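Feature request, filed as a ticket because there's no other form

It would be nice if the structure record came with a short human-readable summary line next to the tokens. Right now we just get the raw output. Example of a typical job, pasted below so the devs can see what we mean:
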Amino acid sequence: MENTKLPFQIGEQYENWEFELEILPDRINGYDSYKYIGNEFKFFLNYLPDETELIFNLDILECVLFVFKNRDKQFYKKVKLDLKTNYDIFCKIKGDKVFIAYGNIGLIQGSFNIFF
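Raw output as currently delivered:
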């Protein structure tokens, strides 16, 4: 079974996307949050997210958060079934949005309510 290809690799440097990021208010104390605004489309499971947030600690990518708007439970279920990766990935549906986060498991678990 082949792993899901992730568009952003955890542990990479901020400078890789420095000119493709827009500063966001920080969600988590000690971490920097940025919206990805680059021209290179970053698909996740062949779907283009409506929003992509990258969260860094000391210029190292720790977590990626995707938001898919106007989606239903069928989309959520399909995404959950298609996820095959060595990373811990959280997927949640809230209203008509599907949120997907991967990266530092402790960061995601400790901040789950902040993300969603």
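Something like this underneath would help us a lot:
The helical segments are 73-82, 105-110, 112-115.
The two ends are 30 Å apart (CA to CA).
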